[in-house]
Automatic annotation (TrEMBL):
It comes from the Eukaryota. This is N-acetylglucosamine-6-sulfatase. The lineage of its organism: Eukaryota, Metazoa, Chordata, Craniata, Vertebrata. InterPro entries: Alkaline_phosphatase_core_sf (IPR017850), GlcNAc_6-SO4ase (IPR012251), Sulfatase_CS (IPR024607), Sulfatase_N (IPR000917). One of its GO terms (biological process) is glycosaminoglycan metabolic process. One of its GO terms (molecular function) is metal ion binding. It comes from Salmo trutta. The gene is GNS.
């Protein structure tokens, strides 16, 4: 999981204040002041590049076509650059709302790939660009500074990436124009692997362990085959690995705390803090032992699809929380709305939650459901360490617990409504495997209700899923099954029962 910190101004300027919290078992290193609102945040896809593309475009993966972290999966490809980058919300802020824009940190996983323009490519929409080449690093990396490569080594005082991003952010705030509104997006890789903490934090949290929630080290007996193949109970070495990773992730986030604190102080000194919208979120969740899966994301469960989402700014009451579900496809529309740009002019699938922040929308008028979709990745050859599993799997641990496969391809309707808190998912595999969870009574998703739930409910959720998988723009925001405005019309159901993200694949 990577932190994404966004500072935004109307004539405003951005960042946060201090607060430390744990969400879904992941310390988020964000010390925010009481002057903010905690949102019920989810992602459209539990993987870095598709999720980041959804943040930037306000679209579901089936509309921005970024399906995984590879160039072939459209991650920072030339096709992405031509078709999607001109339509991102920063590009609209810059071109039509007069904003000066600043980016620093990890962008998309394949950014800087020579086959897609290298680090010389500066995505549309950014006046000041500091982009990390490829994926997460803390030392020995290359930054694209406005299209020019700058190499960094292994010296902490000069090269530790989180601190470098801090200093560049402070410089931007110091020297930016005071006569134009601005948007800044700071994206430190922490707490992504390789989990390299700053020297002063390497010994912190020595006794910390990953949360032992009810679904920790439990066999997923009624779940998709990929979950069922996990070794239960986990070996001592696997548990030690995930606990060690958990501690290291917390340690890396202490430097993110420092980043936040320094930027906030700079804004406060400049007299710009109180007229600022600040958003703190991430690109995906992370599981650490849930259903005996040691370490990764990519799964449909709450540990993987939920993210922290904290916001402070003008007209946002302090110490507020909301149970209304907000998704990362909603971030772009909301920021454009803050800037006074007409979101209806865009093709974004998400919707602005600015009215939710102001407290003028209640649970009876806000959207009740949203789509989560993921296309599994696998290898065409068997993993040499796990030959019995055959080809089609990937991300395998030493105990042959594999975290992904070609047919780990699924789509879900996640419903958060006054009358229902449920998840309905279908897999694109030979079984058309279905998972259904009543989150009200089973928040840890221990019991799959697919074989016992009322058939009419299954048909309605199947129909809703088909509509969301084929939606675009406004049609993604139509009433859900548990919305009073919803009308179920079986005549609208596709003749083949379901529309798929891709053709069936076998693991």
């Amino acid at each position: 999981m990577n932190g994404v910190c966004e500072g935004f101004s109307r004539e405003m300027n951005g960042v946060y204040e201090g607060f430390s919290r744990e969400m879904n078992g992941v310390y988020e290193g964000f010390r925010v002041s009481a002057a903010g609102r905690e949102m019920n945040g989810f992602v459209a896809s539990p993987l870095c590049c598709p999720s980041r593309a959804s943040i930037l475009t306000g679209k579901y993966p089936h509309n921005h076509h970024v399906i995984n972290n590879t160039l072939e999966g459209n991650c920072s490809s030339t096709a992405w650059q031509k078709t999607q980058e001109p339509k991102t919300f920063p590009a609209l802020l810059q071109a039509y709302a007069g904003y000066q824009t600043f980016y620093a940190g990890k962008y998309l996983n394949q950014y800087g790939n020579p086959d897609a323009g290298g680090v010389e490519h500066v995505p549309l929409g950014w006046d000041y660009w500091v982009g990390l080449e490829r994926n997460s690093r803390y030392y020995n990396y290359t930054l694209s500074v406005n299209g020019k490569p700058k190499k960094h080594g292994g010296n902490y005082s000069e090269d530790y990436l989180t601190d470098v991003l801090t200093n560049m952010s402070l410089d931007f705030l110091q020297y930016k124009s005071n006569y134009r509104p601005f948007f800044m997006m700071v994206s430190p890789p922490a707490p992504h692997a390789p989990w390299t903490a700053a020297p002063q934090y390497q010994d912190r949290f020595k006794d910390l362990k990953a949360p032992r929630d009810p679904n920790f080290n439990v066999h997923g007996k009624d779940k998709h085959w990929l979950i069922r193949q996990a070794k239960t109970p986990m070996t001592n070495s696997s548990i030690q690995l995930l606990d060690d990773a958990y501690r290291k992730r917390w340690r890396t986030l202490l430097s993110v705390d420092d980043l936040v604190e320094k930027v906030v102080k700079r804004l406060e000194v400049r007299g710009e803090l109180e007229n600022t919208y600040i958003i703190f979120t991430s690109d995906n969740g992370y599981h650490t032992g849930q259903f005996s899966l040691p370490l990764d994301k990519r799964q449909l469960y709450e540990s993987d699809i939920r993210v922290p989402l904290l916001i402070r700014g003008p007209n946002i009451k302090p110490n507020q929380t909301t149970g209304l579900a907000v998704q990362n496809v909603d971030l772009g529309p909301t920021i454009l709305d803050m800037a006074g740009y007409n979101v209806n002019k865009t093709a974004m699938d998400g919707m602005s939650f600015l009215s939710v922040l102001a407290g003028s929308v209640n649970s009876t008028t806000w959207r009740t459901d949203f789509l989560v979709e993921y296309e599994g990745e696998g290898s065409n050859v068997a993993d040499p360490a796990c030959p019995l599993l055959g080809p089609g799997v990937s991300e395998c641990f030493p105990d042959c617990v594999c975290e992904d496969s070609f047919n780990n391809t699924y789509a879900c309707v996640r419903t958060v409504a006054p009358s229902a808190d449920i998840q309905y998912c279908e897999f694109d595999d030979n079984e058309v495997f279905v998972e259904v969870y009543n989150m009200t009574v089973d928040p840890y998703q221990l019991s799959n209700l697919a074989k016992t739930i009322d058939q009419e409910v299954l048909e309605k959720m199947n129909h809703r899923l088909m509509m969301l998988q084929s939606c675009s723009g406004q049609s993604c925001r139509t009433p859900g099954v548990y919305d009073a405005r919803y009308t179920f019309d079986p005549q609208l159901m596709f003749s083949n029962r379901r529309q798929r993200i891709s053709g069936p694949r076998r693991a």
